[in-house]
Amino acid sequence: MVESTIQPAEIYIDRIEHGRARLLCRWNITTSTRDEQTIYSYEEVVLWWTFPYIDTDGVTVLDNYAAIEKFMLANKADILNYARGTQTTLIGKDKGKGKPPAAEKDKGKGKEEKEFTIRGNK
Fold first, then answer.
1. Alpha carbon 92 to chain centroid, angstroms
2. DSSP 8-state assignment for residue 19
3. Residue 11: CB partners within 8 Å, gap ≥ 6?
4. pLDDT given for residue 52 in this prediction
5. 30 pLDDT above the threshold of 80
6. Which of 14-18, 43-47, 68-72, 112-116 is the most confident on average?
7. 67, 47 in Cβ contact below 8 A?
8. Rounded distance, CA 55 to CA 108, Å?
C-alpha cells in the first residue's frame, strides 16, 4: 500500500507520448489521521495505456490532452479493472505454500546437461 498526504485521483495522466499515456491507477483509497494530518492509503499501479487515434464516436481525434482525458474518464472502469488485474497472483493446488509436490520436486534429477548451439552463437 502506498501512503500520501495528497488526495489521490483514481486515474492520473502522468505523461502522454507517441499515442500512449502513462497512467497512475489507484484503488482501495482509504483515509486516516496521523499527527493531525490526513493520510491517504491506496494500491497503485503505473501502466502505459495505448489509446485509439479516433474515439468511438468516429469524429473526435485523440491528439490533445482534453480529448485524451475525456476518453480516459469514459473508460475508467475498464482501465482500473486492467490495473487491478496486473496485481493478481494465480495460486495452484498447493494454495501458495511454495512447496511443489514431491513428484515434481525430484523431476529432472539425474538428467545430464547437453551443450547446444543457437544459430549465430558458438
1. 22
2. T
3. 23, 24, 25, 26, 72, 73, 76, 79, 80
4. 77
5. yes
6. 43-47
7. no
8. 53
Whole-angstrom distance, CA of residue 29 vs CA of residue 49: 22
What cell numbers appear for 93 in the block?
A: 493446488
Per-residue pLDDT at 122: 43
Put simply, whether the predicted model's pTM sits higher than 0.85 gets the answer no
Strands 2-4 and 11-17: unpaired
Cβ-based neighbours of 54, under 8 Å, separated by 6 or more? 60, 61, 62
Q: Any long-range contacts for 75-78 (C-beta under 8 Å, 24+ apart)?
A: 76/10, 76/11
| Model confidence at 37: pLDDT above 90 | yes
Backbone phi and psi for residue 27, each to the nearest 5 degrees, phi listed first: -150, 175
Report residue 85 CA to chain centroid gap: 7
Q: For residue 60, is pLDDT > 80?
A: no
What distances in angstroms separate CA 93 from CA 67, 96, 98, 104, one per listed residue?
46, 8, 10, 13
